[in-house]
Write a structure and sequence with these properties.
329 residues; alpha/beta; Rossmann fold; 3 domains; six-stranded parallel sheet; six-stranded mixed sheet; 12 helices; 12 strands
Length: 329
């Protein structure tokens, strides 16, 4: 039978010191003599001892854990975001406790309540909107709550959003520049706040320009949904432009346009996406798209974590157009 982890008591016995001396040695800022510290560290190395950070956090009523809640984590946008976020947390001596909300449907409250039990010092929500009661619990327990690309009507929650409306305007202007006469806007059936903002702003811009818009939504935010949209929409040969509110939808749409509907891109059809995921730049796609800055989003989240102020900090991250090869010039 495998033995458990080496305990602080075993280290104390090997070093010939008290259990509390071991604890003080591994507690930043605690008082311990250099002689005792050397004994403890020597014994710890010999035994292979590692501090139990979870227990240490519980004793202090706060851990170094940052809870991260999100769904559809395999999607390129979330994967890239999570990659940068976890690196940033580790560099600050913080640990990322990831909870996948894929099975939570629309209610992420139980997952956030679970993070309270781990004494997480902050909770970052990548997707899904927490109910008011959960936000209240976060504030009551001194747990910072940070929402990414979600906006709620609160004065005590940090929110970091890309400028979706401006991005949709840029997409509309690019399709106008491509001389499109009838355009589609493609979103998923999830109707996330970000997708709704993009769709609404795009329709408004096109209405102002007097260009007809056909809206399509359905399925999950996936390549397959984009492919389905392409097959269904492009039966209408008059559609000569499309704005897909995420790149993943755009990639599916492009493949349907080329392989199923035999459209030439960009000669017959101009397509613009949103996000600038790594796959958008692949040679087989070279998608013209609106870029969110993953680095800027992450930096704003980490800044919010380090702030001593609990009131709302709404940070809107600028977006830019990335010109590639799927929109007519």
């Amino acid at each position: 039978m495998a033995r458990g982890f080496v305990t602080a008591e075993e280290v104390a016995k090997r070093a010939g010191v008290s259990r509390s001396a071991v604890s003080r040695t591994f507690t930043p800022g605690a008082s311990v003599s250099q002689t005792v510290r050397r004994k403890v560290l020597k014994a710890a190395r010999e035994l292979g001892y590692r501090v139990n950070r979870l227990a240490q956090g519980l004793n202090n009523d706060r851990s170094n854990l940052i809870g991260v809640v999100g769904a559809n984590l395999s999607a390129p946008f979330h994967a890239k975001q999570l990659d940068l976020l976890s690196i940033g947390l580790l560099r600050r001596g913080l640990q990322c406790l990831l909870l996948n909300a894929a099975d939570a449907r629309k209610d992420i409250a139980p997952l956030i309540e679970l993070l309270f039990e781990f004494r997480a010092q902050a909770i970052i929500v990548l997707s899904g909107e927490p109910p008011e009661s959960i936000v209240d619990q976060c504030i009551a327990n001194g747990v910072r709550l940070i929402l990414i690309n979600q906006k709620i009507d609160r004065t005590d929650t940090s929110m970091v959003l890309s400028d979706d409306s401006r991005g949709a305007d840029l997409a509309a202007l690019r399709l106008i520049e491509a001389r499109c006469k009838k355009v589609a806007v493609v979103s998923s059936g999830s109707h996330t706040p970000a997708q709704v903002r993009r769709t609404t702003a795009f329709k408004q811009k096109m209405a102002t320009a007097g260009i007809e818009v056909v809206a399509w939504s359905g399925g999950t935010t996936s390549y397959e949904s984009g492919y389905q949209a392409g097959c269904e929409l492009l039966v209408d040969e008059a559609i000569d432009g499309a704005f897909c509110v995420t790149d993943l939808l755009a990639l599916g749409f492009l493949d349907a346009a080329r392989t199923e509907m035999h459209r030439r891109v960009p000669a017959d059809l101009s397509v613009v996406g949103f996000d600038d995921i790594p796959q958008a730049g692949w040679k087989s796609y070279e998608l013209t798209t609106v870029a969110q800055s993953f680095t800027a989003l992450t930096d704003h989240v980490l800044t919010a974590l380090e702030s001593d102020e609990m009131e709302t900090r709404l940070q809107v991250v600028p977006v830019t157009m990335v010109e590639r090869k799927t929109a007519r010039r």
